[in-house]
Amino acid sequence: xxxIFLLSPANCGGRRASQVVxxxxxxxxxxxxxxxxxxxxxxxxxxMSGLYFRGKLAYARAYAADxxxxxxxxxxxxxxxxxxxxxxxxxxxxxxxxxxxxxPTYREALQxxxxxxxxxxxPAARVVLLGSIxxxxxxxxxxxxxxxxxxxxxxxxxxxxxxxxxxxxxxxREGRQLDYVPVLGATRHGxxxxxxTRLR
Length: 200
Description:
Blueprint: E1 4-7, H1 15-20, H2 28-34, E2 39-40, H3 41-49, H4 51-63, E3 70-74, E4 78-81, E5 85-86, H5 88-95, H6 104-120, E6 127-130, H7 136-146, E7 150-153, H8 161-174, E8 180-182
Parallel strand pairs: 1-3, 1-6, 6-7
Antiparallel strand pairs: 2-5, 3-4, 7-8
């Protein structure tokens, strides 16, 4: 197994999340969420977070070896493949879970699934966190499990959510992969970089 990408989650309790699970919503994604088959987790989170998650998903799919290498951190169920189908009821359940190190529902699910993944990885495999590296809510759990195998794009330092999403979309368009460094021991806080130039 080659490089694995872990995508931090969307806001399951935000305005767009409420829209997509509304019984009155008439667009395709909402209809699929109401069906027993559900809709792909990655597509649903991209709708709820817009540019931020869309950039992470596009980048991970461009540079992971296959779809199995694109995993999403969920609030309530640990790591799940972006292609995993979810229903509206599952999204409502996720929205009730606080992403906090003090919340055992979030912490224990992420720790268990990360431990299972680490055991399945070969020694050459590397895990890239595409999410906020300034916060310990992901880094402390994943760093303890993966150690030096947990990497992040060094260009993320100092960038906000939308800037990271925009950067990743540009990299996909340009066919350019970012440089990664180990999370452990890295400088995860820094000055805000210059704003990205507007895409034409």
